[in-house]
Amino acid sequence: MTLDVITNLIIITASLLGFLYGTFTILLRRNPLYLKMVVLAMACMTISRGYILLQNLVKGTEPDVFHVGMLGLLGCFLFLFSANFGMIDGLADDGSIEYLNVRLISWLAPIAIIVGFVICCVLRNPGSKLVPYSIAVLVIALASRYHFKHLIFPDVDYGVVRAIRGYNALALLLCVSTAVLIIADMNGYDVLYLAAGIAMAVWCVMLIPVLKKEATKWTTI
């Protein structure tokens, strides 16, 4: 088996385990929609890497244009972004000038991801993967902003964000690892691709159990 196949198998196994765990402990029970969206994000990750794995096994190479697997990747980080932006951010941040500095600092995460991607594109020609990967990195960067923001935001009123900082740290690491995977794929760095895939797998396995445990604190805040 090639490193591409091994890497995708590792990610699929981890994200599928995360999804199955979330299905039986979150989706099938009365839990906040926020948690369910994170579970669906893991389902999207499984679909994404599963499609790419099948392409590798059938055609011997990954697709280099916009494809179903890319939709799964976008779906994963759109779920993560939507959950934080649409359901949690307003509870922690009332838009007051007092925490303007925290809002500005939170942009460091997406800027770092985008700058790293742009440097990669300048140094090497990404070819036909440029457009689909640019879209994916943009969505990943947007999701990373809110994971980083909720990791550092004081959250003095409700404590909702403070309770799930462990989850946001893991989700931020997933954003970074996925961006590194994309950069490694574009540059043909097989070892870095494998390392990033293993890191993604670790975060996918841990993400939902940590979130579920931390979210129980919401009932006592």
**Structural class of the secondary structure composition?**
mainly alpha
Query: How would you describe the shape?
Result: globular
What's the alpha carbon Rg, rounded to whole Å?
17 Å
Number of strands: 0
As residue ranges, the low-confidence spans are none
List the helices and strands in order. Answer: HHHHHHHHH
**How does the major sheet shape up?**
none
Span from first to last CA?
50 Å
Strand content: under 5%
Keywords:
221 residues; mainly alpha; 0% strand
Plain-language structure description:
It is built from 9 helices and no strands. It has helices at 3-27, 33-59, 68-92, 100-105, 108-123, 130-152, 160-163, 165-187, 190-215. It has 221 residues and is an all-alpha fold. The chain is globular, with a radius of gyration of 17 Å.
Question: Secondary-structure map with pairings?
Answer:
Layout: H1 3-27, H2 33-59, H3 68-92, H4 100-105, H5 108-123, H6 130-152, H7 160-163, H8 165-187, H9 190-215
Helix pairs in contact: 1-2, 1-9, 2-3, 2-9, 3-6, 5-6, 5-8, 6-8, 8-9
Could you write a compact summary of the structure shown?
The chain has 221 residues and is an all-alpha fold. The protein has helices at 3-27, 33-59, 68-92, 100-105, 108-123, 130-152, 160-163, 165-187, 190-215.
